[in-house]
Specification:
Elements lengths: L2 H18 L4 E7 L8 H4 L7 H20 L22 E7 L2 E7 L8 E7 H5 L5 H4 L2 H9 L4 H22 L8 E6 L2 E6 L6 E7 L3 E7 L1
Antiparallel strand pairs: 1-3, 2-3, 4-8, 5-6, 6-7, 7-8
The structure holds coenzyme A (COA).
Length: about 220
């Protein structure tokens, strides 16, 4: 992607994320790049990874440090927790996603009621392939509906993206691996709610259809 194209894409994605998140969240979006500065111990986590993975990891962590700085909290390392998500500092809720060499991070603090936030970017190209994989991520109830009256490719992509954002919002509360098929999505236009099997929290979120990606934000 040319740098002007990438700048425009990042600014559109950041704008969409700001509109979808509750007030008080900081947002940063940047092209994936191994050249960005992040703490040495974080960079070391991907020292042996392939170049694409290094670029997206570094870009994602760089965005995460930008949002922490906006909250006055960039005094920490973001090491991965047991379930793969970053260990945000106490009192901070945040999430990272990367797709199409674009990285997005969001974080906020001072929330009375929120327990988790999750974001997911899904490229339209990857979304098209999900029709073949629906059995792997639809819940049993969704599968029954799909068998009678197939969801459109767009609905399947929306469900998948909403479920990935939901995993990120709740996995620290569940404290265990979450299967996408254990999550059921109810969608109304661009709004959704998610029910996670054996977890009592309520997840609500929204979807935005951007030029080349779908963006999902989930909060619980
Ligand atoms: C975990 C999952 C949501 C990641 O989403 P993805 O679309 O593959 O990748 P994205 O680029 O959007 O997001 C990746 C980022 O999400 C974050 N992440 C990964 N696992 C996470 C988790 N359990 N909770 C919160 N955030 C998580 C990380 O920051 C990761 O980036 P990094 O490794 O560079 O720091 C997705 O792989 C998934 O749903 N997997 C199926 C369920 C699963 O594996 N669950 C395991 C954890 S319960």
């Amino acid at each position: 992607m040319k740098s002007t194209e990438s700048l425009a894409a990042c600014s559109n994605i950041a704008r969409a994320a700001r509109c979808m998140l509750p007030r008080g969240f900081a947002v940063a979006c940047h092209a994936a790049s191994a050249a960005l500065e992040i703490p040495q111990r974080e960079r070391a986590l991907v020292a042996h990874a392939v170049p694409h993975r290094i670029a997206e990891f570094v870009g994602g962590r760089w965005c995460a440090h930008q949002v922490l700085a906006q909250l006055g909290r960039d005094d920490c390392e973001l090491m991965p927790g047991a379930l793969g998500g970053p260990s945000w500092p106490p009192g901070i809720l945040g999430s990272i996603t990367h797709e199409d060499s674009i990285c997005l991070a969001v974080a906020g603090d001072r929330f009375d009621t929120l327990q988790g936030v999750g974001i997911d970017l899904l490229s339209n190209q990857r979304a098209a392939a999900l029709v073949e994989l629906a059995d792997l991520f639809l819940s049993p109830a969704e599968t029954r509906i799909h068998q009678q009256n197939a969801f459109s490719p767009q609905q399947l992509a929306d469900f998948f993206c909403a479920k990935e954002a939901t995993v990120k919002a709740v996995s620290h509360l569940a404290g265990r691996y979450l299967d996408l098929a254990a999550i059921s999505i109810r969608q109304q236009h661009t709004e959704f709610s998610a029910i996670v099997a054996d977890l009592s929290c309520t997840v609500r979120g929204s979807l935005s259809h951007l030029d080349k990606q779908i963006l999902a934000v989930a909060c619980c």
